[in-house]
Known about the structure:
Number of helices: 9
Helix content: 25-40%
Radius of gyration: 22 Å
Number of strands: 12
Amino acid sequence: MEKMKRAERMVAITQLLMANPNVLTPLTLFAERFGTAKSTISEDLMAVKGSFQLSGQGRLETISGAAGGVRYIPEISGKEAAHFLSSLAQRLSEKERILAGGFLYMTDLLYNPAVLRPLGLIFASAFREKEPEVVVTIETKGIPLALVTAEALGLPMVVIRTGNKVTEGSSVSINYVSGSSRRIQTMSLSRRALDPRRKVLVIDDFMKAGGTALGIKNLMQEFEADVIGIGVLVETQITSEAKLVDGYLSLLKLRELDLNSGKSTIVPDDLLFDKILGNYST
Length: 282
């Protein structure tokens, strides 16, 4: 095998790290793969680390010792996140997205990897310091959003079902009242899906009154889980009625939806970047 030049080796190292986010990779693996000394790999990694910092694509964590190595933590810069959410808000505000009954069509975006990946990085940046151990969502449209968030955090994902499934085995089920429709519904989770006393991050696509989020919190109590955060993509603020849960993070706010004129107004959270991702308004 022809020996790589340093520039080629650094590209290969970067690709390997980005393909395995949150995974601790020993320096010996790089040394063996590229046929070079660990000291040389260390120098390469320092350059890669600087490149990540300059580009805002994430950071490298170095763990010393015999069992150590390097880990790539994917991130998104506040400036890039602000630009992305502003653009997404404009797309969601298009009048063609308003459906009969006052619903907002988001399915095409929620299944678009180019949209999902930045959203997962934003949620990961917002909640990483709380050290969640598992990402939880409820079927169905919240699943892709929760999955990319779990990937960005290097965590497993658990899906709550809206009813009992025979293939899930023994399950815990609760009834909850939908905050918007005031209907009694059922959600369930297999006992094998979630270990007791885990630190849980709840991710969902939309929040009206917060009934579903409250139901998830109550279900998590059955597993003695600690809900360390709730993140939603869009929160409706059309009415002044208080939500059934508090302490949640919504990336976008639905502030107006007029069926007659076909006008809707969706904007990013005013305080999101100041509190979590940094102020990039200038």
